[in-house]
Structure formats: C-alpha cells, structure tokens
Design brief:
It is found in: Membrane. It is built from 17 helices and no strands. By secondary structure, it is an all-alpha fold. The longest helix is centred in the last third of the chain and has 33 residues, at about 345-380. It is globular, with a radius of gyration of 23 Å. The mean pLDDT is about 85.
C-alpha cells in the first residue's frame, strides 16, 4: 500500500513539473522534460532498461551526457530502494574499489589543482556507480548475456564506422604519426573517438570478450556471427595503426590462449608468423618501428617518461593530485616547450597523480580483479562462465599491456568502458556463485 502511494505521488509530482516547464520555458524544453520523465519512469520500472541503454549509447554520446547517463544508474538504484523498498547489497569484491575510491577522494582534496581533479573524480565515480548498479540489478545468466550482447553490438557499430572511415578517408593530425618514417600512411581510423589510439584502447577492452563468447557458443549460426564480429573488431584495430593497441591485443591473445588451451600456442605461432606475409607493408613498417630509436613518437614518449620520473621523485608519497589536470600543470613547470595531457604510461601517470601508496592500491585493484575472475570464472565448471571469464581476464591483461604506452584512465569513454568491464566481472562472479549454491542445495535435497 505504501509502495503504491509512493508511485502515485511520483507520477503526480512529475506531471506538475512537466506542466510548469511547458508554461515557463516553452515547447522545446517541454519535449525534453517529457522525454526525460518517460526515460526516468522506464528506468524506475526496470533499471535494466537504463543499464542496457547506457551500455549501448555511451560511445556515441557527448562526454557530459555520457557522464550523466552512467552516473545516474547508481542514483536510480538508490532511488528505487527508497521509493519501492528494494534492497541492494555490497560484497567483499567491492573492497578494492572502495579503497581506490577513498584514495581518489583524498588525492582530490590534497591536489595542486582540486577543481581539475574533480573532473577525473566524477568520471571514475560514474564508473563505480555503474558497477554498483550492474551488480545489484543483473541477477541471472540470461540477463547478463543480454547485457553483454548489447554491449558488444555497440562495439561492433563503433568498429564498422572505423572500417568505413578507412575507405572514405579521414583527416589525420600530424602528431599521430612520424611522417618522415611513415610516408605511405594516409589514414588512421578513429570512428567516434577522435583519436586512433583511443579507439584502439576501446577495442582492446572489448575484443577479448567477443572472442570468449565466440569460443563458448555451440550454435554454428551464432558462432559464425560472433566470429565475424570478432574479425571486424580485429580488422578495425589493425586499421587504427596503433602500435600500443597491437601490443595490448597481443597480450590479450596470449592470455586467452594460456587460459583456454595452451596447445593453441603451437598452432598460433606459425599462423602468426605466416600471417605477416599477408599484411600490408605499411603495417609491417609500423610493427618494426615499435622499438625504433629514431621514430619521433617513440622519442617523444621517452622524453615524457623521463620528465614524469622527475615529477614522481619530487612527489613520491602523495602525488600531485588525482586526474590529468594537476599532472599537466605540474609537468609543464618542468618543461615549458612540451605541452602534454598525460604521461603516455598508465603506471607512471597513476604514480605521479596519487603517489606510490595510491599506485600500490591501484595495482591491487587490477590484480584482485584478475584473481577474482580467474578463481570464480575461468576455473568454473560452467562453460559459459569459463570462456566469458577468459575473455574478461584477457581484456584486463590487454589494457594493462596497452597501458605501458598510453594512459587508459584519461578519456571519459575509456574510463566508462574500463569500469563497465569491472562491473561485468563482479556481476558474473555473483551469478556464478548463486547458481553454484542453488545447484548444491538441489543436490543435498
């Protein structure tokens, strides 16, 4: 009776709000408010609608709108709990996230640029909010599979847009390439991310999950569709010409093979070497240039790393402050002629931002997530969780490898992607545990 009364009050207040908007602000704002109220009602009716919509739309939305959508999921869960009495829970899996969140908040208050740190705090808080909402809302294997399918469909559209760019042509910025040593490269695709290296980060995170789903699927028709989708994701990574992305996907591929079947190494090595013969010469040149000491982008990164080490030495314990703004401000005090946004290395960037203590707990978050994924998913007797877990585990390994040459917690949409994958891991673990308990209880009966 109380729940019904609250629903009536909510609808009544929403009607008054929309009417006031129409009266004072006009038709355009009235339509926007009406759409917002309808969306809110749908999410309150079933928060999974909001989770699915957010997972599909955020790569295509402006950063501010994506932030609102991702952040609001946790808010809606709390609102539903207050309005309708629904319960939520927090498990031991969230402890590493809670510690990292505390360090991020503390480092924001002690930052050399507190207002600048708020940007990254808000983005990561949105990601953590989504993890909280996802783990408390997706409760069955079928729901999880539906969420992952929507997530991967969005990634496929992103990849297709990138592949189309390769054939239609897009403008290349000069800082994306050492033009003296890569004179035959005319296109590096970036899809909706405005930078090929950022697109590569996104695809490195998503592609291993597609491989895991392909590996699990028994239906030939579905396996073909998943395999084709995986091929398109890999093709798009190739077209980014991102050497860091290639390193990341190589780490992910090696991880997946070791987890699923080590014997595949015997097959994979000759296939990989043989495949080099079919790659375009410009791709071969990019691969060879990975360790080049004359490539300007390599030298640029090395210079940044050297100066970042100076920043770390001078701010070893607490760092300069959470986020790229305090790092950028501090870095440019050391060298005025190199305006940069991040250290092009996640581990150096994190240490410079939040100090050695923060770096240790950040690594513990990554390693604990990998441990949970391995113990509860990869080692599961359920083939679905086993192969999904192998994909998720490899996704984290891949982005950690990519993090050697890029900072993957800088661009909002990559931050969201990272936390969504953390959320999928924790949600899958929770469902796997519950299904195992249900099975054991049935056996004892």
């Amino acid at each position: 009776m109380v729940v019904k009364s609250r629903k009536i009050n909510f609808v009544f207040l929403s009607t008054i709000l929309v009417a006031l908007v129409y009266y004072f602000l006009g038709t355009k704002f009235f339509i926007a408010a009406l759409a917002g109220i309808c969306g809110l009602l749908l999410v309150l009716y079933d928060i999974k609608i909001g989770l699915y919509a957010a997972a599909f739309l955020y790569p295509f939305l402006p950063d501010a709108l994506g932030l609102i959508m991702i952040l609001s999921m946790g808010f809606f869960l709390l609102l539903k709990s207050m309005l309708f009495g629904e319960k939520f829970s927090v498990t031991e899996l969230t402890v590493p996230i809670a510690i990292f969140a505390f360090i991020a908040i503390f480092s924001t208050f002690t930052s050399v640029k507190p207002m600048g740190s708020l940007r990254d705090l808000a983005l990561n808080a949105a990601g953590m909010s989504f993890v909280f909402a996802l783990t408390n809302s997706i409760k069955t294997k079928r729901e999880l599979n539906g969420f992952i399918s929507v997530f991967m469909l969005s990634a496929l559209l992103v990849a297709l847009l990138g592949i189309i760019q390769y054939f239609t042509g897009v403008q290349m910025r000069p800082e994306w390439l050492d033009t003296e040593n890569n004179t035959d490269i005319a296109v590096r695709v970036y899809s909706v991310f405005f930078n090929p290296n950022i697109l590569a980060e996104y695809l490195v995170l998503l592609t291993p999950i597609a491989v895991g789903m392909t590996w699990y699927t028994k239906s030939l028709r579905k396996k073909f569709l998943f395999a084709a989708s995986t091929g398109l994701l890999l093709l798009c990574i190739l077209m980014t010409l991102s050497r860091g992305g290639w390193v990341g996907i190589a780490f992910a591929a090696l991880s997946f093979v070791l987890l699923v079947d080590k014997r595949l190494l015997l097959l994979g090595i000759p296939i990989g070497i043989g495949g080099l013969a079919f790659l375009p010469q410009k791709v071969i040149d990019r691969l060879v240039s990975i360790g080049s000491t004359v490539d300007s982008s390599n030298l640029y990164r090395i210079k940044i790393w050297d100066i970042t080490m100076d920043v770390i030495r001078d701010n070893f314990i607490a760092g300069v402050g959470f986020g790229y703004v305090p790092f950028k401000d501090t870095f440019e005090r050391y060298i005025r002629t190199m305006p940069i946004y991040h250290a092009h290395n996640t581990y150096l960037e994190i240490t410079a931002e939040i100090g050695i203590v923060g770096f240790i707990f950040f690594m513990l978050l990554l390693l604990a997530t990998l441990k949970y994924a391995y113990v509860h998913l990869v080692k599961s007797e359920d083939k679905y969780f086993k192969y999904l877990g192998a994909g998720l585990f490899s996704s984290i390994i891949g982005i950690m490898g990519h993090g050697l040459v890029e900072h993957f917690l800088y661009i909002p949409r990559i931050i969201f992607t990272f936390w969504i994958i953390i959320g999928i891991i924790f949600t899958a673990i929770r469902i796997e545990k519950n299904e195992k308990l249900d099975k054991e209880s049935l056996e004892t009966e």
